[in-house]
Write a structure and sequence with these properties.
The chain contains 13 helices and four strands. The strands form two sheets. A two-stranded antiparallel ribbon has the order 1-2. It has 343 residues and is an all-alpha fold. 37% of the residues lie in helices and 3% in strands. The longest helix has 19 residues.
């Protein structure tokens, strides 16, 4: 039976945001609503923002009056597979998508918000693009995104709200109103990579070294440079770090996240600093980077894990470095190993 109160999907709204809003609008907990739609499916133990499987779509369409195509447009799978360049499995961490770190219904992170966006909303809601790992600030308001409750430091878990909470712009634990959060200004440099990546994804093409490349290859290069910065920050006194410093990319130990977690699991504060360095690397001519590495005697083995082939566009650069093995992999392939089941 259709709901008595319709809840339309808002512009760029994530699926989890809509489900929470729909529940609060009907006057019930999110867990109660999803249990009524899917009695035998534990929705909140997975990352529902990725997609709603086709086999689960019918009861949701019937209850909400919203078409399958609208839900599919709000899902993140299509964009994430363009970024990755291959079909993504359900239970792995997806490249460049913030991981929720789910254990049962508890999340360790993965959600972030702009307090000023919430303040300007007639009905507060979470945006799809806030789940993308390169987003660390709001380009509309020029402030840093927040990824934990400013009051109690709990992760953002709107699915754990209850009917009495009325709206999702509040902490599910201490009930702090996120719209009251003090904002921190975002520098142009901190916003630079975000705008660049958004433009690549929107235009469906990128340029590196004067050559046009696919979206997936560009993000592969960005990910490679991200690992370069993290590897160099482990030894900030090394010749490798000095070479990056001479390119205008000062490397410090603080750039190496204390946790050692994958980029998609890092807090916004740590991702922000890393992406500033990656943007600088992407802005430098590859020939200049190669010459600097050669002069500093930076070896190919220092740049990346030899078990993982580098992006195709960077193979000529790496081949010029000393201690460079013969590269036989010409195409980027999805990982063959089974990483931790964090999603």
């Amino acid at each position: 039976m259709p709901w008595a109160l319709n809840v339309p999907l808002l512009h760029d709204e994530s699926l989890s945001s809509w489900l929470v809003r729909a529940a609060l609008r009907q006057g019930c907990d999110p867990l109660v609503l999803t249990g009524a739609i899917w009695p035998k499916w534990r929705v909140w133990t997975r990352d529902i923002d990725r997609e709603i499987p086709d086999v689960r779509m019918s009861p949701l369409k019937n209850a909400s009056g919203i078409s399958s195509s609208e839900f599919q447009k709000s899902a993140l799978r299509y964009d994430c597979e363009r970024i990755a360049g291959y079909s993504l499995p359900e239970t792995r961490t997806w490249p460049w998508l913030l991981a929720l770190g789910t254990r049962n219904r508890t999340h360790r992170g993965g959600q972030q918000f702009c307090p000023l966006c919430f303040m300007g909303d007639l009905v507060p809601y979470l945006r799809r693009h806030w789940r993308l790992a390169w987003h660390t600030g709001c380009s509309v308001h020029g402030v840093q995104l927040v990824d934990e409750c400013p009051a109690c430091k709990a992760p953002i878990e709107p699915h754990r709200l209850i009917a009495e909470d009325v709206h999702l712009a509040q902490c599910s634990r201490c009930k702090y109103d996120f719209r009251k959060t003090m904002c921190t200004a975002l520098s142009l440099e901190e916003l630079a990579f975000q705008k660049m990546a958004d433009r690549v994804l929107k235009n469906d093409i990128a340029t590196v070294g004067g050559n046009s490349i696919a979206v997936a290859e560009w993000f592969s290069i960005a990910g490679f440079f991200l690992s370069v910065v993290r590897r160099a920050s482990r030894r900030p006194e090394s010749a490798f770090a000095d070479a990056l410093g001479s390119l205008g990319i000062p490397i410090t130990a603080s750039m190496m996240p204390l946790s050692g977690l994958s980029f998609e699991l890092l807090p916004a504060s740590e991702r922000r600093e890393l992406l500033v360095a990656v943007k600088r690397l992407l802005s430098i001519d590859l020939e200049e980077t190669v010459k600097t590495f050669i002069n500093a005697d930076v070896k190919a083995t220092a740049l990346h894990d030899q078990r993982k082939p580098p992006p195709v566009a960077l193979l000529p650069m790496i081949a010029l470095l000393s201690d460079s093995p013969a590269v036989t992999h010409c195409y980027r392939t999805p990982p063959s190993h089974e990483p931790p089941r964090i999603f």
